[in-house]
Design brief:
About 45% of the residues lie in helices and about 20% in strands. With about 325 residues, it is an alpha+beta fold. Keywords: DNA-binding, Transcription, Transcription regulation. Pfam families: AraC_binding_2, HTH_18.
């Protein structure tokens, strides 16, 4: 662990599950773990950097783990799944992201976490400091700013969040000279708070949405917004019109009518578009030298006919999926 005046860097590797547990406890929250798998082949690493109010880390843990926090995070912690499997639950909600997906842990209640051979990127913000920034941005009193265990509100919001975090991780946190400037540290933290605020459901955003606007007659109704959020958070699952309508709290025919009126397509067509976009993101991140193929990525998102996938992909992105994979 290396520390300068304004940034703390961490690089820990171990084959000892107990040391890994101690590291996770010190960096995230006290928790009670149960491990599954081979202790002999166990590998753990964590690397990253941060200031007194933010940090970004990449963590790899080779065993299966069931864990319940002994106390809440009292921080905003977003988890991006880079590989493996993970699910979060808080007693009321459960989240199971696909690879490449992002979720926000519950900052106010103990989370139960299950993972298996994971690599994740975590972005952590001090909750009290984040609430003060939200109050400055929205006018909502800091004490009333609440987040919850949740997925991003949309696929575009998730892309925006990942892009902001990646820029901070790549361009800002490695530069001690840059971080020595108070205005830079303040602005980077503000940008991350805006990313959390724009990406995950929260009381401040809901209050903004509930305010009447003079030109809101053409705005999407709540049933459409709920359907969109459900589709974008569950596109990796085997869902259809019935499940989408149930999540939107409306009948299937009513949802189809609302979707065509406000989105210009059927809910199932929108589901296909979202899955195509997620396949596109995987192709951009894939490496053919590691065995990644267009067919395998397409199949993960439900596109089993290579020809139709290629035609649909080209119509949306202007080039073939194989060109995207190669470049």
């Amino acid at each position: 662990m290396a520390t300068s005046a304004h940034v703390e860097r961490v690089e820990i590797r171990t084959t000892d599950p107990e040391r890994a547990h101690e590291t996770l406890t010190s960096m995230y929250a006290a928790h009670t773990p149960r491990l599954h798998g081979s202790r002999e082949r166990f590998r753990f690493r964590i690397s990253g950097a941060g200031t007194d109010v933010l940090r970004v880390d990449e963590l790899a843990h080779s065993m299966g783990l069931d864990s319940r926090q002994d106390a809440p995070y009292d921080a905003l912690i977003a988890v991006e799944l880079l590989s493996g499997q993970i699910d979060f639950a808080n007693g009321r909600t459960s989240m199971v992201p696909a690879v490449g997906g992002v979720l926000l842990g519950d900052p106010h209640r103990p989370n139960r976490v299950h993972w298996s051979d994971v690599v994740v990127r975590t972005t952590r913000l001090d909750l009290a400091a984040a609430r003060r920034v939200v109050e400055d941005l929205t006018g909502m009193p800091a004490a009333r700013v609440d987040f919850e265990l949740s997925a991003p509100v949309s696929a575009s919001a998730a892309r925006y969040f990942r892009a902001v975090v990646e820029r901070v991780r790549r361009d800002v946190l490695p530069d001690d000279e840059l971080l020595a400037q108070p205005l830079v540290r303040s602005e980077v933290f503000r940008q991350l708070v805006v990313a959390f605020l724009s990406t995950f459901p929260n009381s401040a955003s809901r209050a903004q949405e509930d305010r009447p606007e003079p030109h809101s007659l053409g705005a999407e109704p709540a049933v459409v917004r709920r359907a969109v959020g459900f589709v974008e958070s569950n596109a990796h699952r085997d869902i259809g019109l019935g499940e989408i309508a149930q999540a939107a709290r409306i009948g299937p025919r009513g949802l189809q009518h609302a979707f065509r009126k406000h989105r210009g397509c059927a809910p199932t067509e929108y589901l296909r578009q979202v899955r195509m976009d997620y396949a596109h993101q995987e192709l951009l991140a894939a490496d053919p030298s590691h065995g990644d193929t267009v067919a395998a990525i397409a199949a993960r998102w439900g596109f089993l006919h290579a020809g139709r996938f290629s035609i649909g992909y080209r119509s949306m992105y202007g080039r073939s999926p194989s060109d995207t994979l190669r470049h």
